[in-house]
């Protein structure tokens, strides 16, 4: 038997086996270089590539108060209710009416059980807030903050029913200020959270707070009403996405080159989305939706649902803006000229359902 | 003697050509020890894969280092023994 052809065959076989790995490594280098070019361009343009906390006096303390409030939040009385009772309470909270004696009793109990947490929410409301320190998050904090926003609304309804108008307005102010914390935690691209302010009109009509309380609440809402909220949200979305790319979550079976490819694809899409978010309101939402790419570096972003996911996310943020503006219209003692994020026309108070 | 042997009567047995042994031995040795040339494509491919891996990892590490807030470095308290 001649040994030479055997070696030749073996080396050829190994060479052939190595070729796909070589092709992958070439692709990996190309994608890594593309990612570098995009990140370099972002940095050169001065765009944020990571979320950083602005240095504001007292902001650190406010973050700690919100952390404490979230940790103290109690949902026991609500969880113990039958499903029908919970549905009635939820309907009252979301529809802005139907505050039956039973619902009010539940609201009182929830407020009583969250007295300490609400105290921290009120203390944080008076302070500037710039976000939570990295590494301080935990799984249930977001839902705890959302629950606290609801409890603020419950408290406002209870205080309004008790005829304490200024305190009811103060509770709504705390709820509005709590949205800063919700903005901070909802930078994760999967969600956009915020108080619904659905009971504001009902509560204020019952509470009849003083003009000074209304002005304070109005100022709190005005601070939330940033015309560039859509753009800012997507800029935060991008910074969060880049932060998550650097921290792969095991066990991730997605090859690095593929992740880099999807990240570049997402960055390109986000550049178009952020540019579209600068358009006038009349075309802003539709221009963003026209991009049609869900900018996430996962294989799910390639599915046929991607355009719908982007449209739904954009709609949620625009709806949040509309709610803030509607709340401003219902609180302000002076006429306001505000734009409807969906139509681009003047937002009329009669078109609001708060 | 048979008639068949008559045509061979004019020939005599002869040995192999003088260079044949050397050729056979050389070929046999060549087959026993594979030459580097045969393995070159596989070795070069493996080396290229390694180099590209290092290059991609290096580029990614440089990119990722830009995506971390320098202020995020956790504070560490060192206690003296």
Give a quick rundown of the structure.
The complex is a heterodimer of chains A (354) and B (81). Chain A is mainly α and 354 residues long. Chain A contains 14 helices and no strands.
Overview of this protein structure:
The complex is a heterodimer of chains A (354) and B (81). Chain A has 354 residues and is mainly alpha-helical. Chain A has helices at residues 4-44, 59-72, 76-79, 83-95, 101-113, 115-125, 141-161, 165-185, 200-207, 211-224, 229-245, 256-276, 281-291, 306-331. In chain A, α2 (59-72) crosses α7 (141-161), α7 (141-161) runs parallel beside α9 (200-207) and α13 (281-291) runs antiparallel to α14 (306-331). Chain A starts with a helix and ends in a 23-residue tail after the last helix. By secondary structure, chain B is mainly alpha-helical. In chain B, 54% of the residues lie in helices and 0% in strands. Chain B is built from two helices and no strands. Chain B has helices at 20-32, 36-66. Chain B starts with 19 loop residues before the first helix and ends in a 15-residue tail after the last helix. Chains A and B meet through α1, α11 and α12 of A and α1 and α2 of B.
């Amino acid at each position: 038997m001649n040994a030479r052809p055997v070696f030749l065959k073996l080396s050829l076989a190994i060479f052939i086996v190595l070729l796909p790995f070589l092709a992958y490594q070439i692709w990996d280098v190309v994608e890594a270089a593309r990612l570098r070019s995009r990140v370099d361009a972002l940095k050169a343009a001065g765009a944020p590539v990571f979320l950083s906390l602005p240095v504001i006096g007292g902001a650190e303390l406010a973050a700690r108060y919100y952390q404490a409030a979230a940790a103290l939040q109690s949902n026991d009385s609500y969880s113990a209710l039958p499903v029908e009772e919970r549905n009635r309470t939820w309907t009252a909270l979301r529809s802005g009416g139907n505050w039956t004696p039973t619902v009010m009793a539940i609201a009182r109990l929830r407020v009583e059980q969250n007295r300490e947490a609400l105290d921290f929410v009120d203390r944080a409301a008076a302070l500037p807030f710039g976000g939570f320190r990295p590494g301080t998050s935990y799984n249930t904090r977001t839902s705890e903050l959302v629950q606290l926003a609801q409890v603020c609304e419950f408290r406002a309804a209870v205080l309004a029913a008790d005829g304490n108008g200024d305190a009811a307005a103060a509770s709504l102010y705390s709820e509005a200020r709590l949205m800063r914390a919700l903005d901070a935690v909802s930078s994760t691209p999967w969600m956009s959270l915020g108080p619904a302010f659905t009971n504001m009109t009902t509560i204020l009509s019952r509470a009849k707070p003083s003009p000074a309380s209304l002005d304070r609440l109005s100022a709190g809402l005005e601070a939330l009403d940033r015309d560039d909220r859509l753009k800012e949200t997507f800029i935060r979305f991008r910074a969060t996405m880049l932060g998550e790319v650097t921290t792969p979550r095991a066990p991730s079976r997605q090859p690095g080159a593929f992740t880099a490819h999807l990240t570049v694809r997402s960055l390109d899409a986000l550049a178009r989305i952020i540019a579209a978010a600068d358009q006038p309101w009349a075309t802003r939402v539709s221009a963003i939706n026209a991009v049609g790419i869900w900018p996430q570096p996962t294989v799910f972003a390639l599915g046929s649902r991607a355009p719908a996911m982007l449209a739904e996310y954009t709609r949620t943020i625009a709806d949040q803006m509309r709610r803030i503006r509607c709340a401003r219209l219902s609180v302000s003692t002076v006429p306001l000229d505000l734009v409807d994020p969906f139509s681009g026309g003047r937002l009329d108070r009669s078109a609001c359902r708060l | 003697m048979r008639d068949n042997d008559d045509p061979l009567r004019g020939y005599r047995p002869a040995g192999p050509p003088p260079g044949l042994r050397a050729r056979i031995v050389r070929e046999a040795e060549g087959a026993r020890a594979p030459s580097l040339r045969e393995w070159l494509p596989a070795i070069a491919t493996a080396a290229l894969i390694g180099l590209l891996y290092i290059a991609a990892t290096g580029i990614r590490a440089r990119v990722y280092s830009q995506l971390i807030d320098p202020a995020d470095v956790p504070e560490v308290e060192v206690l003296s023994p």
